[in-house]
Amino acid sequence: MKSVVLVVFLAAAHAVAGTWRFNGDKVFQVRPENENQVDFIKHLARIVKLDFWHPDSAQQVGTQMKVDFRVGADQVTFVQTLLEHHDMQYKILFQDVQEGIEKQFDGEKHVTKRYTYKKYNNWNKISAWTARIAKRFPKLVSRIQIGSTFENRPMYLLKVGKQTNIKKAIFMECGAHAREWISPAFCQWFVKEATKTYGKDKTMTKLLDSLSVYVLPVFNIDGYVWSWEEDRLWRKNRSNNSNSECIGTDLNRNFDAKWGTKFSDNDPCSPTYCGPAKESEKETKAVTTFIRDNLQSLKAFLSFHAYSQLLLYPYGYTFDPAPNQKKLDKIAQSAVKALTSLYNTTYVCGPIASTVCTILVLVLHSTGLMIRA
Ligand SMILES: [Zn+2]
């Protein structure tokens, strides 16, 4: 993966169907002012089950950082009391998470049976769509199966671009984290835009004539299915863990890149569990095998997440700059500028580790920008 540029996009998403209910659960936002308050939040995470929405885990919490977490209805009063006792100001971003989950479907969950780009689609619809779009645009889109998931679902990858022996390619992955539904929705939208504008829009035509974009619309398919059917807030895949009743590994912490070091967890019950070994998961192995087999042509790896509006580039496991930091930053800056030019959306960019943990807050302070949740 050496020569592959890893870029992580985070898109603003609506939160959160399934049998699991979140009635009365609230999402809190706090901003620890000093190390004592940071330690308090980390302590709180040990005594109360906090579901971190930003950053990914208690480990990543730092001073002057906006920290968003969900608290179960039965713990809300307890958490509020403790926060007040520690003089920590807080905002409540979601008064009732279940209400937010239901709003997502605009009351049309059971009405919208047809596939549509404008609504969230379940895995069966997405899977059927991958076959349909390849059949409809045979000169531009082809479908490859790169492996199977733990629960044996086929992992489909779309190759988008003029179907010739093109040398350069970009790998685009969506849905590593099951609950981040906006991410697979984006991958599908991208393929729609590419096929719709090819031959009409000059830039898109030139791009797709000169490179291929491999689109993995859902990386963590089993988790995605689980988030639809059982637990809307599920994040990891659905593999079993030996010696633990807890299910799942965090796929984007399972890669062979300083595996198991910073910002990942060895506890199978943690939402950021890195797995029993690097590339232990069938889903991760399918992706890395494909990447290694195509390393000659692949020039970038893009991973789409929610939530926040951030464009992140390496490294995530260290605060040290990447050797090509300047180049990465230049590309990120121009991407952010291009994004703003359309709908005035403001993304903040920087290296993963320092942007998520520290710089983000400084940038926000100096510009008065708000990261939308
Ligand atoms: Zn994510």
UniProtKB/TrEMBL annotation:
<dbReference type="InterPro" id="IPR057247">
    <property type="entry name" value="CARBOXYPEPT_ZN_2"/>
</dbReference>
<dbReference type="GO" id="GO:0004181">
    <property type="term" value="F:metallocarboxypeptidase activity"/>
</dbReference>
<feature type="transmembrane region" description="Helical">
    <location>
        <begin position="352"/>
        <end position="371"/>
    </location>
</feature>
<keyword id="KW-0812">Transmembrane</keyword>
<keyword id="KW-0378">Hydrolase</keyword>
<keyword id="KW-0862">Zinc</keyword>
<dbReference type="Pfam" id="PF02244">
    <property type="entry name" value="Propep_M14"/>
</dbReference>
<dbReference type="GO" id="GO:0006508">
    <property type="term" value="P:proteolysis"/>
</dbReference>
<dbReference type="GO" id="GO:0005615">
    <property type="term" value="C:extracellular space"/>
</dbReference>
<keyword id="KW-0645">Protease</keyword>
<keyword id="KW-1133">Transmembrane helix</keyword>
<dbReference type="InterPro" id="IPR036990">
    <property type="entry name" value="M14A-like_propep"/>
</dbReference>
<keyword id="KW-1015">Disulfide bond</keyword>
<dbReference type="GO" id="GO:0008270">
    <property type="term" value="F:zinc ion binding"/>
</dbReference>
<feature type="domain" description="Peptidase M14">
    <location>
        <begin position="119"/>
        <end position="373"/>
    </location>
</feature>
<dbReference type="InterPro" id="IPR003146">
    <property type="entry name" value="M14A_act_pep"/>
</dbReference>
<dbReference type="Pfam" id="PF00246">
    <property type="entry name" value="Peptidase_M14"/>
</dbReference>
<dbReference type="InterPro" id="IPR000834">
    <property type="entry name" value="Peptidase_M14"/>
</dbReference>
<comment type="similarity">
    <text>Belongs to the peptidase M14 family.</text>
</comment>
<keyword id="KW-0482">Metalloprotease</keyword>
<feature type="signal peptide">
    <location>
        <begin position="1"/>
        <end position="18"/>
    </location>
</feature>
<keyword id="KW-0732">Signal</keyword>
<protein>
    <submittedName>
        <fullName>Mast cell carboxypeptidase A-like isoform X2</fullName>
    </submittedName>
</protein>
<dbReference type="InterPro" id="IPR057246">
    <property type="entry name" value="CARBOXYPEPT_ZN_1"/>
</dbReference>
<keyword id="KW-0472">Membrane</keyword>
<keyword id="KW-0479">Metal-binding</keyword>
<keyword id="KW-0121">Carboxypeptidase</keyword>
